């Protein structure tokens, strides 16, 4: 049984990945009224997400067409959703406000930090010279400045560094001298070490954790650097300059700003939060960092403890546009509240820190809005992509909710089936669940190097109840697992897929087995009525969804530029591209859109009918 994995996982700082230049007609892959899909957009959306493929029989032309049909449907359904008023819903508004704020802060970071980075030639020269030297060193550490100064004075008067080190606790972690080179240590320590020679010691070096004296035991030099090493030097210098500019901006921007939270409202929130945590200790998931979290799935339950009036009360007292408890809950839905212990004192401290972080994030957003960064082409373009995705997704959910099946329809199905009900197919998967995309990256890298999926699941999954079984869920129906169920239904045994966004975080799954749904003879209609209604409701949803997408395509006049589509060269390497945002935040670089290309056959039939 072969397994297909989707790698590598790229974790990068993507800035301005949208194409902001005018597109010629040759660059447009598809049109539908005012909607256009360019080659750049198609390539980015296609290559930045994984696809379920069998490389032995991979047909890029077929895959590209189906993916294009999926993108067209996404944009058409988004237009329909707007007409239905889906974009006016509270859930959608909260979702897009959170996403917009992330992009606005990122635009501010780019302007105030990234755009100000200049690397002096002298820094490059110094960095390359240091990269050519590997230094072996040991250190003496102290929390006490007087003690470290005395040790330094004693060594200068003839005392032995090595002898002093043997009497100290830090000796245990230094059996051998550590090999360090440019970029592998604190910059202040690095400056001190590269100024001395073999056998010499540094003056006391003050870092956040305490004081150090270092001694060089040996130096290994090379004559030149390869291109990879030169590039690494530049990245290290750039990162250090970026951090300095960021720290300067941070201190300057927040200096003198005071925004208070309402103490009584914070206390009410804390009491509700504490009660919820105590009642759900056994159900709260713990990540690999040892932290529990309150997130999207928990917020509706927390809000039940407050009435509408309380939710509308002010909790953060901004002079203009103060923040209500309801709005803070919206933020909580997308930015998890994490804590390491059930101790009430520590949880209260974490809540205060969380609110403080929210206030600072909100101040940055308001500054970006004041500068009208929401008008920047790259911000508009990226948010448009996510808006279309979320609106189409909400429209699909609305389709399912709107499907009604009468008792008569269900009974007719029951009689026609001769009291025999075909149950849906069932799937057995192994799952790695985490709320941290960095953990997804670690898991994927281990799988790429041949690790067994179940062993990786035992190591990384947050789902404690399944950890001992390597994340194995047991058999379930597609409808029972939401997006995970939909993905499993499209996979082959042995395939690995993800990450899949769920209310609990992100999931990687491997399909272990699948089996055909059983045919069951039922004694009475009442016994099978709800199952039958679910079967018919699902069938109606997919049929109506196909019909709606096809009709929208006909109404908007979908045109596909086959020459442009065929000219796009796409990688057969599946990858996941993550985007880190300035001032915090991390997302998939583009939305993951499940395949929805079945509507196109219906669209072609409609076109033929119209031509007759």
3D architecture notes:
This protein is 49% helix and 16% strand. Among the domains are: 133-221, Roll (Chitinase A, domain 3), CATH 3.10.50.40; 424-517, Chitinase A, domain 3 (Roll), CATH 3.10.50. The chain has 22 helices and 20 strands. It is α+β, with helices and mostly antiparallel strands.
Proportion in helices:
40-55%
Tell me what portion of residues adopts beta-strand conformation: 15-25%
Q: Within the CATH hierarchy, at the fold level, what is the topology of the domain at 424-517?
A: Chitinase A, domain 3
Radius of gyration: 29 Å
Q: Tell me which CATH architecture of the domain at 424-517 applies here.
A: Roll
Low-confidence stretches: 1-22
Write the layout of secondary structure elements.
Elements: E1 9-12, E2 28-32, E3 35-38, H1 39-47, H2 60-83, H3 90-112, H4 121-131, E4 133-142, H5 145-156, H6 161-166, E5 178-180, H7 187-193, E6 205-207, E7 210-221, H8 227-254, H9 263-279, E8 292-294, H10 299-303, H11 308-311, E9 314-316, E10 323-324, H12 325-334, E11 337-339, H13 344-370, H14 377-402, H15 407-416, E12 420-422, E13 426-434, H16 437-448, H17 453-460, H18 464-467, E14 476-477, H19 482-489, E15 496-502, E16 505-515, E17 519-521, H20 525-556, E18 559-560, H21 562-567, E19 576-580, E20 586-588, H22 599-611
Parallel strand pairs: 1-19
Antiparallel strand pairs: 2-3, 2-18, 4-5, 4-7, 6-7, 8-11, 9-10, 12-17, 13-14, 13-16, 15-16, 19-20
Helix pairs in contact: 2-14, 2-20, 3-13, 3-14, 4-8, 15-20, 16-17, 20-22
């Amino acid at each position: 049984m072969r397994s297909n994995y989707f790698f590598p996982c790229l974790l990068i700082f993507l800035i301005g990945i949208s194409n902001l230049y005018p597109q010629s007609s040759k660059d447009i892959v598809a049109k539908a009224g005012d909607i256009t899909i360019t080659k750049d957009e198609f390539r980015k959306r296609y290559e930045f997400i994984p696809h379920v493929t069998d490389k032995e029989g991979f047909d890029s032309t077929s895959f590209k067409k189906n993916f294009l049909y999926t993108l067209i449907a996404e944009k058409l359904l988004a237009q329909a959703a707007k007409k239905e008023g889906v974009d006016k819903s509270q859930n959608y508004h909260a979702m897009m406000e959170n996403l917009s704020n992330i992009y606005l802060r990122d635009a501010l970071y780019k302007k105030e930090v990234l755009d100000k980075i200049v690397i002096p030639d002298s820094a490059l020269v110094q960095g390359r010279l240091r990269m050519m030297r590997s230094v072996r060193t040991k250190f003496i550490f102290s929390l006490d400045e007087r003690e470290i100064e005395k040790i330094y004075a004693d060594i200068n008067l003839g005392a032995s560094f090595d002898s002093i080190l043997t009497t100290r606790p830090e000796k245990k972690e230094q059996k051998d001298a550590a090999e360090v080179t440019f970029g592998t240590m604190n910059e202040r320590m690095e400056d001190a070490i590269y100024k001395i020679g073999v056998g010499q010691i540094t003056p006391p070096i003050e870092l956040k954790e305490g004081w150090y004296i270092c001694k060089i035991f040996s130096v290994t030099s090379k004559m030149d650097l390869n291109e990879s090493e030169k590039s690494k030097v530049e990245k290290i210098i750039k990162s250090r300059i970026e951090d300095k500019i960021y720290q300067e901006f941070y201190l300057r921007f927040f200096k003198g700003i005071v925004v208070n939270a309402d103490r009584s409202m914070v206390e009410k929130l804390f009491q509700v939060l504490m009660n919820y945590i105590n009642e759900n200790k056994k159900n709260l998931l713990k990540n690999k960092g040892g932290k529990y979290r309150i997130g999207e799935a928990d917020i509706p339950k927390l809000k039940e403890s407050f009435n509408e009036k309380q939710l509308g009360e002010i909790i953060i007292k901004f002079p203009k546009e103060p923040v209500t408890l309801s709005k803070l809950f919206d933020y909580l839905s997308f930015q998890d509240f994490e804590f390491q212990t059930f101790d009430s004192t520590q949880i209260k401290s974490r809540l205060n820190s969380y609110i403080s972080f929210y206030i600072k994030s909100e101040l940055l957003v308001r500054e970006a809005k004041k500068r009208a960064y929401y008008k920047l082409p790259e911000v508009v373009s990226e948010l448009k992509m996510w808006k279309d995705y979320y609106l189409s997704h909400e429209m699909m959910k609305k389709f399912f909710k709107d499907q009604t099946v009468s008792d008569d329809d269900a009974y007719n199905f029951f009689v026609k089936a001769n009291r025999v009900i075909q149950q849906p197919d069932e799937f057995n998967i192994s799952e790695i669940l985490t709320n941290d995309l960095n953990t997804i990256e670690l898991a994927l890298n281990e799988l790429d190097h041949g690790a067994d999926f179940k062993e990786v699941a035992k190591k990384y999954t947050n789902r404690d109840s399944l950890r001992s079984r390597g994340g194995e869920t047991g058999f379930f129906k597609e409808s029972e697992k939401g997006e995970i169920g939909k993905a499993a239904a499209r996979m082959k045994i042995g395939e690995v897929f993800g990450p899949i966004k769920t209310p609990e975080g992100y999931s990687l799954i491997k399909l272990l087995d699948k089996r055909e749904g059983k045919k069951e003879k039922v004694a009475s209609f009442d016994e099978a009525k709800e199952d039958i209604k679910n079967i018919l409701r699902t069938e109606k949803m997919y049929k109506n969804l196909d019909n709606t997408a096809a009709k929208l395509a006909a109404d908007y006049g979908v045109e596909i530029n086959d020459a442009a589509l065929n000219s796009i060269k796409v990688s057969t390497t599946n990858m996941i591209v993550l985007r880190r945002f300035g001032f915090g935040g991390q997302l998939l670089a583009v939305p993951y859109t499940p395949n929805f290309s079945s509507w196109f056959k219906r669209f072609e039939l409609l076109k033929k009918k119209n031509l007759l």
